[in-house]
Amino acid sequence: MQSPTTRPGRTGQPPRLSRDAIVVAAQRVLDEEGAERLSMRRLARELSSTPMALYRHVLDKDELLMLLLDANIQRIDPSVRPEHPRDRLVSGVGALCDVLEGCPWGVEVAASDKFVSAALMRIVEAVVEALADCGVPPSDVVYAYRVIWAYLVGERVARGGSEPSEGRRRGLEAVIDGLLGQGADRIL
Amino acid sequence: MQSPTTRPGRTGQPPRLSRDAIVVAAQRVLDEEGAERLSMRRLARELSSTPMALYRHVLDKDELLMLLLDANIQRIDPSVRPEHPRDRLVSGVGALCDVLEGCPWGVEVAASDKFVSAALMRIVEAVVEALADCGVPPSDVVYAYRVIWAYLVGERVARGGSEPSEGRRRGLEAVIDGLLGQGADRIL
DNA sequence: ACCTGAACACCGTTCAAGT
DNA sequence: ACCTGAACACCGTTCAAGT
Lengths: 188, 188
Description:
Oligomer: homodimer
Mean pLDDT of chain A: 89
Shape of chain A: elongated
Distance between the termini of chain A: 59 Å
Structural class of chain A: mainly alpha
Radius of gyration of chain A: 20 Å
Number of strands of chain A: 0
Order of helices and strands of chain A: HHHHHHHHH
Largest sheet of chain A: none
Low-confidence stretches of chain A: 1-7, 184-188
Number of helices of chain A: 9
């Protein structure tokens, strides 16, 4: 059994950086200096490395941002899962909104499908499932999801860095109820 | 009577640039090369001038973007004004959404209140008035406006440069009806 | 009064070289 | 295999100087 760091038949320097280390450092820069300061150059400095060293572990800045978004979505507590599907919608979308609070670029990352976040896909699936459970007909589920996503994105983008706003949850409920009201068979 | 270009008691070069000329050139760059190419340097090149010449006529890039947004909002046809307040909401917000299609930065410009667009203010007032006419209680008008604005922004931001989407209007109607349904006294 | 040119402090990324 | 340093093609903006 060989240690993976000293495999024979492999030459060259052992890696000093890793995807994980880069994502962790990026989170640190994000927390301490904000998203607008998170550049490849700043990140390299944080790791006492050079900008180009990062490109051995990450395809480009977009992939890095996706990885960081993914890591933040993974932190959503999956044990919070209300019984009623409408509440599941509200809590799931609310959790996603909280994540986007700290990852403003997530909106663009999700819009361009250059890279996809597996963790985000899981949330999307849960929301879509909850919509179906609310009685939204299958032909309208994608449409309904898009409207909800638009509200979520807009709520985040529209108020730049203000307080989370008391009306956010109420607004989300208005959007959801508006959508559920469009189908004839309103559960609720 | 003096020509304004040759007033006595005034020295120095006559201006070759003007706010208007800059905004017009900016619109040309926007149309021909897209918003992401609209930089102070690119704009100076378009005007056969230098980046710093622009700063004699415009405070900074943010003000320029506000002026360009304002000019685009002014182009909204004010004669389109449906009788029913709910239709006025849908058409007003829809028109604004069309403008933001071509001025993606408008979202940020509006969010930061560093500069304000008078034309945007007029639209906001019209929407607020229509909300009141729909029976939204005064205490909720601002909240309702915010939810609509969030949907509008999100709809724009979420799909980057895709087709305008058949479901946009329907989504907007769902949001509006959800809001109107939250008050007890639904007109419609 | 208006414009220019050089400079500052940044970006993401490519390319060629070093160990 | 992994990392470095210089370079390219950009940003917005300040500052000092030119006419």
